[in-house]
Amino acid sequence: MSFLSNIFARRQQSSSVAKDRLQILLAHERGAGEAGESDLIRQLHKEIMEVIARHVAVDQDKVQIKVDRGSGCSMLEIDVEVPQELSGKRGS
Amino acid sequence: MAKVLVVTSGKGGVGKTTSTAALGAALAQSGQNVVVVDFDVGLRNLDLVMGAERRVVFDLINVVQGDARLSQALIRDKRCETLSILPASQTRDKDALTSEGVARVMDELREKFDWVICDSPAGIERGAQLAMYHADMAVIVTNPEVSSVRDSDRIIGLLDSKTQKAERGEKVDKHLLLTRYDPARAARKEMLSVEDVLEILSIPLLGIVPESEDVLKSSNVGAPVTLAAPTSLPARAYFEAARRLSGEKLEVSVPVEKRGFFDWLFKRDA
Question: Family per UniProt (chain B) (predicted)?
């Protein structure tokens, strides 16, 4: 497999992977400066928790916030685990 | 008018000390008075790379604290009389370097020499910031490797904000020195190319120093590569870089051994 894949697979050159990764990373590091990055996530986490807490009681640990950066767009992923009994009461 | 040059990188092990010694010796061989200053307090190595480790009596901290005069701490190179070294302290704490003391020593060095070349410690802490603070020019030593490029980008940011020039609203003259470059691997796209690194960091290119056995051989015997193996490829790259620092306009190329197919293949015209 590895022999054949070495011949036939059109893998991306590692140097262009390196260049792309660096360009994406540095574009954010230059803008964010020192600790801007983790500050943004912390702030988002805090405010999202406040909004949710107004309506339902959710455990701090059940809220996951992730950021995934691409060259074209970045994705902010917010994952809130809602307690079982509440999902039944919706719309009441 | 003396020029203060800092050789810096952020990341360790990319060739700051090697490049300081090689550029210093290259500039000194052109007849200019050069001092190389080791700012890596506690981990000094410039003395060893320059072959002066057994001649160190006083060091930068002794001079900063007024325990020794500058002339007592300077070591004149035995092979090149226009080249001197000011070693760092190996035993003292780096907090012993005060901003005022360093400023005083730098002023005194500016009067004595044409070039004051400061070998920065790795990192972005106080030692690195003191080494760059008085710089008019900076050589950013970078390997074609992701972590080195990232750290160089960070250092460029510091040069634009934490130096005396930046505080006065001026710019430190920044130059990229790409070291440990392997043109064959770059051609196979296994290594970031010169163009890739230049595009990412966007500062002018001072030189490309190819990966070479001569660099280790020279440090083994305690001589800058531009003194120990002046015709070697890395030495030629450093000599050309030194001429560019002196203001000459020279085309940058990847130095190659012979003129032939490979020469044609790897020749650059940027």
Answer: Belongs to the ParA family. MinD subfamily.
